[in-house]
Amino acid sequence: MAPETLGRVVGCLLAGAVGDALGAPVEFRSIDEIRQRCGPAGVTTMLPPGHFTDDTQMTLFTAEALIRAGMELEATGSCNPVHLLHRSYLRWLLTQGHEVGALWPDGDPQAATGGGLISEALLHRVEAPGMTCLSALRSGVAGTMSEPINDSKGCGGVMRAAPAGLLVPGAELGAAPAEAYHLGCEVGAVTHGHPFGFHPAGLLAALVHLIAAGASPIEAYGEVRTLAPADLHEITDAAVELGAAGPPSPEAIERELGGGWVGEEALAIALACSVAAPDMSTGLLASVNHSGDTDSTGSICGNLLGAHLGAEAIDREWVAGLDGAVLVRAVGMDVAQWVIERPPADVPDERFERLFRLYGA
Ligand SMILES: [Mg+2]
């Protein structure tokens, strides 16, 4: 494997999980409360218990679905990512203690317990899952851009979309930003029907697609900006401008970009904290110290900075304090193997047997 690509792909997922867990203890708190609790600089390190939340859980299930999509494409010449994403998110719904049997698209609820990720006990923790994701999935219907499932623009669509930048079926990393954008939108639209529920997911996927292939965040933004509708540019342009001199203060984030509870704000905050971050830690800490949805903004910022700087750039103590780091790294390695080597699914050789067993069900 190309070492830089390996590090960037793993880094995208692992730094996302680190940002999620850094921000989780202070989600729902104002910056004043964060400072009271953690000191004047706010969150400066990984706080126990170091749990990542639904953002990372669903990101991993997105990766699972899209590895399957790639396998399906290689084996049959076509694939249906929306169907596979919906199935993976129903598996996630099962991990959250909800019945999915009657919702299973092809009438085989047993199949919902197959596959690799659902057997991971760590992914069954209930860590403040988003209400829109739960209610949309419990409807049994997969939303699409043309048939929106609701009018939600919560950030639950964008927070899980990074793998759509890494795993565009049939495309080389960095070669298909428009396809990554479309796939990211499909990821978001499964549960979030407002345009700002899914277009930020498309933009995140397109950014990750180019950044993981070596573009800087600012170069990537310049290249993919026009894939997004013009009314999204207002806040993403403001974010890039705000972050141009380095990650912004908590007050500037709140004043200029909001709290990140909705898709466009969550992406904007993550962008502002990553476009000119001098290093991974400075960017991640800025993304979790504000009065808002800090686990989601931390998670998305981690996706961007991890794709840019690689897994090696993550603070080792934070990784050591992340409960589940081994699992996230392992999924990241699987994604990287698929991205870099792209084994043809109809000719499994022993090197890929494990991947087919885990993701090919
Ligand atoms: Mg969360």
Explained architecture:
This protein is mainly α and 361 residues long. It has a single domain (3-359), classed as Orthogonal Bundle (ADP-ribosylglycohydrolase fold), CATH 1.10.4080.10. The protein is built from 17 helices and no strands. It has helices spanning 3-23, 31-38, 54-76, 81-95, 131-138, 163-166, 177-189, 195-211, 217-224, 230-242, 250-257, 263-274, 280-288, 294-309, 316-321, 325-341, 353-359. The protein is globular and about 55 Å long. The two termini are 25 Å apart. The chain binds magnesium ion. Magnesium ion binds at residues 53-55, 128, 295-296.
Let me know the largest β-sheet: none
CATH class: Mainly Alpha
Number of strands: 0
Globally, the shape reads: globular
Give the total of domains: 1
Kindly report the name of the CATH homologous superfamily: ADP-ribosylation/Crystallin J1
